[in-house]
Design brief:
alpha+beta; Alpha-Beta Plaits; about 35% helix
Length: about 90
């Protein structure tokens, strides 16, 4: 069964959780955390998301973001996933 479309309203803050594959470790070294923050800030600026808070855990991430456009959060997360996942 396909996933339901996410509701994303411009100007409304959203709590986003991103987990590693099978909850495996995502950040193994300090450089991993720094690179993820760089990816996050670049994508947030590019796609119009205000990042209010973030928590980078060893196997997942919590973000509090407010999008400027309906597709901003999904585009931001796609960009982070493709850049950081490499």
């Amino acid at each position: 069964m396909p996933r339901r479309p996410r509701l994303s309203l411009p100007g409304i803050a959203q709590h986003v959780v991103q987990r590693g594959n099978n909850r495996q470790t995502t950040f193994a070294a300090d450089d991993d955390y720094a690179f993820y923050r760089e990816c996050l800030m670049d994508a947030a600026n590019k796609y119009g998301c205000d990042v209010h808070a973030y928590v980078l855990m060893t196997n997942h991430v919590h973000l509090l973001v407010t999008p400027a456009r309906p597709d901003a959060v999904s585009r931001m997360m796609q960009s982070i996933g493709s850049r950081f996942g490499r």
